[in-house]
Amino acid sequence: MTMENTELGQNIKELRKKKGWTQKQLAEFSVLDRTTIGSLERGDYSDLGIRKIQRVLLLLGKSLTLTDIGLPTLDELKR
User: Fold this and answer.
1) What distance in Å separates the CA atoms of residue 26 and residue 16, rounded to the nearest whole number?
2) Residue 57 in contact with residue 12, Cβ under 8 Å?
3) What global pTM score does this model have?
């Protein structure tokens, strides 16, 4: 489990709680198993497909985006 996995899982958990949903409710809305939602929130989704993650994020009003990795530019550091 990487830091990114854990961060994504924590964000999903926080967003779910802000909506007042249980894991079971989010699972039902996304047509997934509750244990899958629990695994996702723990950052343990090595066997979970990207479409399922996107479905959960869409329900929570979020999406996946691509970002460049590496050292920040000078302009980014100034911000």
Assistant:
1) 7
2) yes
3) 0.76
pLDDT tens profile 35-54: 999 999 998 877 788 899 99
Q: Is residue 68 part of a domain?
A: no
Helix residue ranges, H only, 1-79? 3-18, 23-30, 34-41, 50-59, 74-78
d(CA 72, CA 11): 23
The domain that contains 23 carries what CATH number?
A: 1.10.260.40
Number of domains comprising the chain: 1
- Residue 65 in any domain: the answer is no
Are 32 and 6 a contacting pair, CB within 8 Å? no
Would you say residue 64 lies in a domain?
no
